[in-house]
Structure formats: C-alpha cells, structure tokens
Amino acid sequence: MATWDVAPLRLACWDEIARDLRYADKDGQVTARRGLPLTIAYLDNVLVLVLVLVLLGWCCLRDDCRQFRIDRIIAATPTGDSVRPRRVALLDAYVTRMAAGRSAP
Question: Among 29, 60, 67, 68, whose Cα sits 20 to 30 Å from the Cα of 3?
C-alpha cells in the first residue's frame, strides 16, 4: 500500500469488510493482524506537532480498539468478513473508552 493512499481504507470503512493488515510499529517491527475498520480520522498530535491520519478500528489480535496510523499500514487485504453486525457496538465501545479518558494505543 502506498503511503497516504487512503482509498482502499475508505472503501473498507464504507463496505464494512474486515481487513488483514500488515502493520509496522514505531520501531519498524511488522505484525499481521485483522482489523475491523470503523472510520478514518485526522488526529493532531501535539507532542510532535504533526497531523496524523489514522484508521480507527477494532484489532482482533489485541481484542481492543486501536488507532492504526495509515502511514504505517503496509498492506490491507480484504477478508470477506463483514463488520456490519458488530459495527455499531464497536463504535459505541470506542467512543465510550475515548470519553472515559482511555485513549486507544
């Protein structure tokens, strides 16, 4: 996936289809995980003074909500598994955790 190519991720959110992600952490370690895409957001990170584009979703590996930095997503392969039956509950859980001050890692 090209850096900043958000079209496939936007489509994943719209189609409500899970994606198998290859994702690099801040140290460059690559992991494979299944992500349930919820939405794309722009987050202002005041610590490094940059605007970060992220995919908000549910990480099946961590069994928790996560912010996947789009510039660290190496690949996002459609799985065929629908997120639709769980999407509203996952969004609600995400918003509840954020409102409680528990930001997603």
Answer: 60
